What does this fold into?
Amino acid sequence: MENKQLKDNIVGERIQSLRKERGMSLDSLGKELGVSKAYISYIERGERQPGRNILVRLADFFNTDIDWMMGRSDIRSSSEEFAIPRLQPIPVYSCISCGTGLWVNEQPEAYTGAPDWMLRPSKDYFANPAEGNSMYPTIENGDCIIFEQTENVRYGQIGAFSLNGSYYCKRLEKKPDGSFWLMSDNEDYDPIPITG
It folds into this structure.
């Protein structure tokens, strides 16, 4: 697993390369972005993937293209080539709790667009604005989160979960005893057991 992480870690490698080009430490880049040096280190080692908000801030700070940072383009800066991506409409529902749970309206409130390269063909997607900071620094309060509609969420993956009438944006974790938990990235929030 670790070798696969390192092999597929184009995002982390490129962020590390950009940081070193600027002669910056993990700490100084973390301060520039408002995150910990440990979080930057996790990204560079491929142990975490940066959220969209962090990717945008990194791209702006280093004047690079997000597609290049993600290994989807060989064009490092958007000034090298200007292209307008095709956007697919995604329904946006009410806020999802990145905290202690919220009810989500079942009717879309608006629509947003997502570029084709972000979406897998023949899959359905939906979006919710994040409310709360339990998933910080991966997801920040107010971020628009796009979810792929699925019944199967891998352990460690972030998803939208319905539990006891409330909806949450959390990571799914399976403990050694076989129990399932909804986990926050922010350690100030307690794990939520999934029972029944």
